[in-house]
Design brief:
By secondary structure, this protein is mainly α. The protein has helices at residues 8-17, 23-42, 50-62, 72-85, 104-119, 126-133. The radius of gyration is 22 Å and the shape is elongated.
């Protein structure tokens, strides 16, 4: 979707998703990576030092090698990957669960609903406006 076709709130959300992570988020990723590395070493799946392993793991997860380069839009996926490598259920951390994208049909239904609410008085009620719209 082009920036011209996006609403103001959508542009704000898209802009936020490209922001760098907070210090707390970076700390969470580092701790998750250390835990995952220890588990992987214990299983005999990682024989390199932590720094080399985490760079490879980050590259596999998001194409970046530094925690400071990860963007907000990538945070959930990277955390999910590290938690999986650590043998934990990713759903055990709410931040690892990404909200579903809203498709255009749903967005259109919401807009129609809002318009029906606004026009309810002209049609006698919300159901009347909704019936007319359908």
């Amino acid at each position: 979707m082009s920036a011209v076709a996006m609403r103001m709130d959508e542009r704000a959300i898209a802009g936020q998703s490209s922001q760098i992570l907070t210090k707390a988020q970076v700390r969470d990723l580092i701790l998750a990576a250390q835990t995952a590395w220890k588990v992987q070493r214990k299983l005999g799946l990682a024989d390199e030092p932590f720094d080399a392993w985490r760079k490879a793991a980050l590259h596999d997860a998001c194409g970046r090698q530094s925690f400071r380069d990860i963007r907000q839009s990538e945070y959930g996926h990277v955390l999910h990957t590290l938690l999986t490598l650590a043998g934990r259920k990713p759903a055990s951390r709410p931040a690892a669960v990404k909200p579903p994208r809203v498709d255009e049909a749903t967005r259109a239904r919401w807009a129609l609903d809002q318009e029906c609410i606004k026009q309810a008085e002209a049609f006698g009620s919300y159901p009347g406006a909704k019936a007319y719209a359908d």
